[in-house]
Write a structure and sequence with these properties.
Elements lengths: L7 E6 L3 H10 L8 E6 L7 H9 L4 E6 L10 H18 L7 E5 L5 H18 L10 H16 L8
Parallel strand pairs: 1-2, 1-3, 3-4
Helix pairs in contact: 1-4, 2-3
The chain binds FE2/S2 (inorganic) cluster (FES).
Length: 163
């Protein structure tokens, strides 16, 4: 597909990855603008079905970015998230989607350049894989926006149950 540009949803923890994304913006680092960031209090709040819901809404890839291992503000949230990402990879394969469409990363709040690198890395990977077969011809962007608003309003924007 000639004009294909992957749409990526990034689940970022408030303390590290989201701050790194912010820093990348303040540093005016160049990275593709095809990533939509959904802030979580901790990646431990992530559930496998949030990842599946994103694909259902038509994103081409998802990444989860949490604090460095050993640095999670809720102790083991990022380790739990990694296990859930692994589980999501298995489920994606079962429904015929490449497991490489979802990935987990760890970074500190000072790693703005690393955040930009991750977006570039995922964009290259997803460009090579091509569009998700679940991507609607139109409206994926709208679905992601809706999911973000819904999440922020009531789904995952609490600090409870991060573990
Ligand atoms: Fe960042 Fe838990 S607080 S991953």
């Amino acid at each position: 597909m000639a004009d294909y540009e992957p749409l990526i949803l990034a689940f970022c923890c408030h303390y590290c990855a989201y701050a790194a994304a912010d820093l990348a913006g303040s540093m005016r680092l160049q990275y593709p603008n095809n990533v939509r960031v959904l802030k979580l209090p901790c990646t431990g709040k992530l559930e496998v079905n949030f990842i599946l819901a994103a694909f259902e809404r038509g994103v081409d890839g998802v990444f989860v970015a949490g604090c460095l291992e050993g640095g999670c503000h809720f102790l083991e949230g990022n380790l739990r998230a990694r296990r859930r990402v692994e589980r999501a990879k298995v489920l994606l394969s079962e429904i015929g989607l490449e497991p490489e469409r979802v990935e987990m990363f760890n970074l500190s709040s000072a790693q703005g350049p690393r955040f930009a690198e991750i977006v570039n890395e995922m964009t290259t990977r997803l460009t090579e894989l091509g569009p998700s077969p679940f991507r609607p011809p139109r409206g994926a962007e709208e679905g992601v926006r809706e999911m973000t608003i819904q999440a922020e309003a009531n789904l995952i924007n609490t600090t409870s149950e991060c573990r």
